């Protein structure tokens, strides 16, 4: 299971989600980019900047809720420690 954070091209929006298949979920987000009825479509939020692996769904959901409760500054510090340049992560080439 994965907990992940997406941003938009101007890095003004952070989206936190959970999934059991990160590559599939990123594909779904990028295909829904123009769908204004969805948060990620409305805010063009489809750039992966952070992710972590959790051992099971229960822990992933708990971590997602924890991160969603954090301040923007605390989320930014977490992202900076993992991906200091905030470059979009390509799962095929990521060595982080």
Structure description:
The protein is α+β, with helices and mostly antiparallel strands. The chain has a single domain (2-82), classed as 3-Layer(aba) Sandwich (GIY-YIG endonuclease). It contains four helices and three strands, in the order ββααβαα. The chain has helices at 22-31, 39-42, 57-68, 72-82; strands at residues 2-7, 14-19, 47-53. It has a three-stranded antiparallel β-sheet, sandwiched between helices. Strand 1 (2-7) and strand 2 form a beta hairpin.
**Whole-number total of structural domains:** 1
What is the overall shape?
Answer: globular
Kindly report the CATH topology. GIY-YIG endonuclease
Q: What is the number of strand segments? A: 3
> What integer value in Å does the Rg equal?
13 Å
Which CATH class is shown?
Alpha Beta
Summarize the main sheet: 3 strands, antiparallel
Proportion of helical residues: 25-40%
Widest sheet: strand order?
2-1-3
Determine the strand fraction and express it as a percent band: 15-25%
What is the mean predicted local confidence, pLDDT? 91
How many helices? The count is: 4
Low-confidence stretches: none
Order of helices and strands, N to C? EEHHEHH
Structural class: alpha+beta
Q: Can you tell me the CATH architecture?
A: 3-Layer(aba) Sandwich
The CATH superfamily appears as: GIY-YIG endonuclease
Distance between the terminal alpha carbons, to the nearest Å?
18 Å
């Amino acid at each position: 299971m994965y907990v992940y954070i997406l941003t938009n091209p101007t890095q003004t929006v952070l989206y936190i989600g959970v999934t059991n298949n990160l590559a599939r979920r990123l594909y779904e987000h990028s295909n829904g980019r123009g769908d204004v009825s969805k948060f990620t479509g409305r805010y063009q939020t489809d750039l992966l900047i952070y992710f972590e692996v959790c051992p099971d769904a229960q822990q992933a959901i708990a971590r997602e809720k924890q991160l969603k409760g954090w301040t923007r500054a605390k989320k930014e510090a977490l992202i900076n420690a993992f991906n200091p340049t905030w470059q979009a992560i390509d799962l095929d080439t990521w060595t982080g």
